[in-house]
Specification:
homodimer, DNA-binding, globular, 170 residues, 6% strand, mainly alpha, disordered N terminus, 55% helix
DNA sequence: TATTGTTATACTCTATAACTATA
DNA sequence: TATAGTTATAGAGTATAACAATA
């Protein structure tokens, strides 16, 4: 080993003493995602499944290609996700009569009920848990800030890239 | 397949029409982490390496066990991370003379310089990029909200759990 | 015997690319 | 030939558990 050693005392290292907004957002965002994951696990659902279910409910009738593009994932990955929801009888693949290569995805009645009666309340409770510590006015204010940031970053309203390989401590 | 089909029209599905704060935090957080990952990649560094480097700079002299516990990762994973930083001559393992089982981690001079002159500016630029769209007063206000949330959620100031298996679309 | 750090192994998740069918 | 969906394979990243050294 070459290069001497320093730092008998704590060193700041160029980064601000207290974490900035970007770091806090990443930290809290990861925490929120982990909490949500734990909550939906009690319904035997993964976050990815929950997200797809919500997307199909919000914009039914789309092809798998369109959905995969919207989520920024390869179509091959979507297949297994769709399979898992179809196995539970929550969504349904319907052939497009005009072009039999396409499938169009729709919620089943069961899926609609699950989304509205099971997943919805869990998402609401999750949101409340994360916002604990902020009063109503502050939550509105925070939402405005976050929406502005999201718009500035070009993020699509209902979709987030929980797919990139990050993993980032401290 | 049993269970009829519904949803000829878009369906809200119990979740709020516009994403709530928790969803926005997760979405923006993942985006911020991805941006940071891209930025530090230009320095040939992973987010995990950057985080460890900052942690060692902030609290030098800790054992690997202590750091692993703080980051919430298994010690075996930390070994490779420490190896990669030691290979670059940025940090150093020093034997504890009183208990030769322990190592204590310190920055080298080179690591101190890299942290201050390379990584620091990148982190600052990253923070500015994420906060684009908010003026100075709003950034301060946002930071206050985020710090309050982090405290309420019991998050340790410098450490975030970018380790759980989430992956969550929509 | 307990603890620190390390190595070895196995498992999960994901993307890439080959394959089938429709057009 | 091109496109939608599927299947198969391989790679990265991670945790679990066995191991060696020190106490």
């Amino acid at each position: 080993m070459m290069g001497g050693v320093s730092a008998k005392r704590p060193i700041d290292g160029g980064s601000p003493r207290r974490p900035g907004n970007a770091f806090l957002l990443a930290q809290i965002g990861a925490h929120a995602a982990a909490c949500f994951s734990q909550r939906v696990a009690e319904l035997d659902v993964t976050p990815a499944q929950a997200g797809l279910l919500r997307l199909v409910g919000r914009e039914p009738g789309q092809s798998q290609q369109a959905i995969a593009a919207k989520l920024g994932i390869p179509p091959s990955r979507l297949v297994l996700l769709v399979d898992s929801l179809e196995d539970r009888d929550w969504i349904e693949r319907r052939r497009n009569p005009h072009d039999r290569r396409h499938y169009a995805l729709y919620l089943t009645d069961l899926g609609t009920r699950f989304l509205g009666q099971q997943l919805g309340p869990v998402a609401t409770a999750h949101n409340d848990e994360i916002c604990a510590g902020l009063d109503e006015a502050e939550r509105v204010q925070l939402q405005e800030f976050l929406e502005r940031i999201a718009a500035h970053q070009g993020l699509v309203p209902g979709v987030h890239p929980g797919y990139r390989h990050s993993s980032e401590p401290t």
